Amino acid sequence: MNIQSIKQRFGIIGRSAGLENALNTAARVSATDLTVLITGESGVGKEVFSNIIHSLSPRKHGKFIAVNCGAIPEGTINSELFGHTKGAFTGAASDRKGYFETVSGGTIFLDEIGEMPLAMQAALLRVLEQRTIRPVGSEKEISVDVRVVAATNRNLQEEVAQNNFRRDLFYRLNVLKIDVSPLKERTSDLLELVPYFTRMLSAELAMPEPNWAHEDILAMNEYDWPGNIRELKNLI
User: Fold this and answer.
1) Helix/strand/coil (H, E, C) string of the chain?
2) Residues 6+ apart with CB under 8 A from 115
3) Are 157 and 106 in contact (CB under 8 A)?
4) Residue 172 forms beta bridges with which residues?
5) CB neighbours of 112 closer than 8 A, spacing ≥ 6?
6) CB count in 10 Å sphere of residue 230
7) How far is CA 141 from each of CA 66, 127, 133, 192, rounded to the nearest angstrom?
């Protein structure tokens, strides 16, 4: 599938070199089973790239699940990812499969991997190396066949240097990296993004499309966009 077809299929707007390089890399790596690390600021659309990788891969008929590692409480993340047995802890009324087991044969997207607790990082490293999991409260190893795509808005090398992220896990995840450019580095795409969001939101709100003043467009080009695409959409 060529880049233009990918853009149309996944609703990606823009022609900047950084965006197209990232899309090219995602398309190429999708045919493999390599672990992928997607980096970029919050709001740049990292989950879209994980969807591209899964949807164009041989695993496309398998399940895809996105997990926000920063949103799961530290005390339950082991159970959420790997499952648990009945009676493993207070409230475990029955056996429960974790995400890695339920998505076996497919792809799991670990968003905000930099926020994963250190103890859980060791367990994830074991899964990546041995392709087995152990549910909480069980002594039995379960084989899983899952492709891992991870994403972060943090500099993991700095996190490693500060002992906030395991060095061995970083190298295990960083098999192939896709860096998604922030909007401030591709302001040329505003020429397409602004009309796109204007049309879409006007239709959703049943309002006539506004005409942007010249000074508004100039201000958009000069702004740093710390919230990236998400902030642009909210502004419009």
Assistant:
1) CCHHHHHHHHCCCCCCHHHHHHHHHHHHHHCCCCCEEEECCCCCCHHHHHHHHHHCCCCCCCCEEEEECCCCCCCCHHHHHHCECCCCCCCCCCCECCHHHHCCCCEEEEECHHHCCHHHHHHHHHHHHHCEECCECCCCCEECCCEEEEEECCCHHHHHHCCCCCHHHHHHHCCEEEECCCHHHCHHHHHHHHHHHHHHHHHHHCCCCCCCCHHHHHHHHHCCCCCHHHHHHHHC
2) 69, 70, 154
3) no
4) none
5) 68, 69, 70, 71, 151, 152, 153
6) 14
7) 24, 10, 6, 50
Report the alpha-carbon distance of residue 213 to residue 82 in Å, rounded: 53
Six-digit token pair at 69?
A: 């590692």
**Kind of pairing between the strands at 142-143 and 132-133:** antiparallel
Q: What is the mean pLDDT of each run of 10 residues along the chain (236 residues)?
A: 91 93 96 96 95 97 94 85 85 86 95 92 92 89 94 96 96 95 94 94 94 89 94 93
CB contact burial 78-111 (16+ within 10 A = b; e otherwise) = bbbbbbbbeebeeeeeeebebbbbbbbebbbbbb
Tokens of 84: 């648990």
Q: How far apart (Å, rounded) are the C-alpha atoms in residues 11 and 5?
A: 10
Q: How far out from the chain centre does Cα 60 lie?
A: 16
Q: Record the pTM.
A: 0.91
**Cross-strand partners of 179:** 39
Q: How far is it, in rounded angstroms, from Cα 82 to Cα 100?
A: 6
